[in-house]
Write the structure tokens for this entry.
Amino acid sequence: MSTTQSFERQLASWMADEAATGVPAGAIDEALSVTGRLRPRPRWLALLRETPMQTKSHVLVGSPTRRIAIALIALLAALAAVAVGAYLLNQIAAADDWTAFRGGPARNGVARTGPVGQGVIHATFKAGANFSNGIAIVGSTAYASSADGVLHAVDTGTGNELWSFRPPTSAIGSDVSVANGLAYVSDGGAIVYAVDATTGRERWRSQPSRPASSIAVGSGMVYFGTSDSAIVALDATTGAQRWRTAIATATSPIHNVAFADGRVYGAFDNGQLVALDATSGASDWRADLGTGVFGTAVVADGIVYIGAGSEESTGHLRAFDAATGSLLWDVPEGYGAPAVVGGVAYATIQPLGDVAAFEARTGRQLWHVKLATSTRAPAVAGGVVYIPADSAQGVYALRATDGWQLWQVPVDGHDSCCIAVAHGFVFVATDLGNLYVIGGDGKAVSPAPVADVTAAPTLEASPAAIASAGPPLVAIRWTAKATVDGWTPNTIALAPDGRLWVADPYNHEFTIFDADGKYLEAWGTFGTGDGQFNLRRANGDGYGTVAFAQDGSFYVLDVGNERVQAFDKNRKFVRTWGTFGPDAGQFVDPVGIVVAPDGSICVLDDGRGVIERFDKTGTVLATFDAFPNASKGVNTANALAIDSKGNFYVSDIDPEQVDRFDPTGKLTMTFGAGKFNEQPGAMAITPDGRMFVDQGSNRGASPGVLVFDADGTYVTGFGGNGQGELDLPWPTGLLMLDGDLIVADVTNPGGPGDAKLVRFQLLPPLAP
Amino acid sequence: MQRQLVERAQAGDHEAFSVLVRGSYPRLYAVARLILRDLDRAQDAVQEALVLAWRDIRALRDADAWDAWLNRLTVRACYRWVRKVRRRDLVELHVAPDEDADTSTDFSNAVVDRDQMGRALARLPVDQRAVLVLHFYLGLPLTELAEILDIPVGTAKSRLNRGLAAMRSAMGADRPTALQERSA
């Protein structure tokens, strides 16, 4: 008998024994009760929903043509959704739609998904007259007006026209904005039209003033500038005028208005940039740029960007605080409206072919390339910057991290306006009247330096710095690793002797570093006996935390054994308490332990839904509900933290937020809701109450560490999702130490870099 | 008999479905338990699978494939539960035997520590766990489990071998000897 056979037999035997445990009482009845309230789906729908299961000879489950059918149904559903949307006001556009010139009312040029792989022309629509106005994409419909004054609605899948709208008065002369099931345009005269986005039928028209800019839609109103230097708001439903604000200082045509966060922004040719209250039209602030303006104001993350100058070669790209109008930075080059995402602004000097990335907060240039073509304003989606190449007649796709070229697709004419990016496609309208739908071939693309540059790409900051979108928020003091196989750092604790104890749930031990990041030793053994640990639950979850008392004694939350173990300062086992169970002093799913300022030991157990306070002997002193406004139960919280005043912090999973409790267990604040793209995890609190909270790896481009003020206001974030030294793709532990922040991160699982422990110096404005 | 019950259930007869469920539940629950290593999640996963089975029962073209289909739905539900708790699966590891490690531990004469076996299984990626469970617990041949998992037979075989090797390695040293990657 080979050892292999023996092991396999033992495995099978073990599984049989493990599985022999009976079914939980009531489980079957519960399942049948749930299904009894439901009805089977119709066969056609069930066949489409279920992934086919088939043998070589026949299909057992589902439909082999499922994908095709689903695609067709999805198309029909999208059309149906648009039809329904036409009757529902105040609907929010889907996140992947491109609803107006520059993507939407904020004009920030950001889309969620662009083409995957090498760009290829997917469909083409020929209008019969050139396109010179902005495109909108909602669902599978593209909206664009051609120079003959007709608004076209085109099926993006086929390139076929769905409907067209020609105003009865004069030709359409504006970009189109789509919202609330309506497409808003203005003609060359003085009329604004709202057209049913599904049918193309006119719903209302309004003639309040002579529109001279494209329309921004938001808060139930449509906003536009007029040729007599005013900004007007109409009711989006009826077209009735809500307000009209004349800009006395503006004596020239207005550029496209932008709307975001309750304000309307407009820039005038004579250099006036104004911010109006979107509800009343009252002026919030005004800035005098001194020179002409290069087009549209862009709003992103509380910053307004505007390009201005007498000519592009001597112009300026400026950034203003969107709320106050104070100037944040000024790049003395002729860059126009940027696309802004993840704390980086991508912009072009349109006549000169320059493309650059700037830090949104500081204006620091991160990279720069020069294309041998005039350009239009860029768009960005999924880590790719799309540049409409005007004179070169095409579209460039550049990697957002360094400006390297991914692909370039030629089209048949000049792009005399702009591009749109939505639902995995780039849309380009040319002066020859063709609307191109560019998709991706799904294959891997090898980035390369821009092929037709007149100067080599200049990488002026690391991709990591770009991705982190935060420098100079932090600077690295040191980076450390433990020489332990499979080291997986998790929570961090500070011992009174200044050493850092980092839990390693993979190895069921603690790795110990000095304050300079020197790895010293690993301590702990796996097991169930006294002084042994199981830092993982049976299903493989990795947890386990240690908390120190002032005298150097410490307490290990032995999660896999559902107990707390107490040790003296010499690491000698003292006692243990806790067993699995739902009662006081027991644990179901303990996830965090802290030592309070009064020396008591507090444990968060999301399974029981409580924080429980113990004395040094394990006697329960108090218990309180840790989930008064969040789901409780196994796997509903990730961590427990405590500040110097004894306030508790719990990172909730459902919803993703953080709750703060005073030492008596009273909920005093909930913060972070809507700010996390992943589950919040470890937390660290400064003496003045500023809070650092990490989030996991599946967060896209958002930062790994989020920073909140003491009142819960989100401040900023740092730590990109890349592989650079400043990046924190999967932060798992945080600790404040003498004004610095120490972060444990598993970085690049299995790849270069691997896990790390980083001590960050916090720079202004984060510096204590 | 089962075929008739399936056909009646497809016609909307919930009583027939109930009979089928009562016959299948212990097997599905055991599979989910072994894959997820968690009683509550296993119960949730099975319930999720059964809801899908009832809702989409008319997708079943061959009533004789009922058991295989339920197995598939359960394994998929387990995958979804693993993804739901990805944060906590932070340290779930893909392990492979170290080329230099001693893998000749004689399990034929040893009484394998049952907890050790559980830990070794828990350390595997969920897709390897699923293959091992379907093969060693349900006794399914590779071709059949490949159909259930919707993967090529070669992939199933690879996962089986890698899973076994990793378990042996973990059992031999009570810790994996080589780290390849972590999975979310």
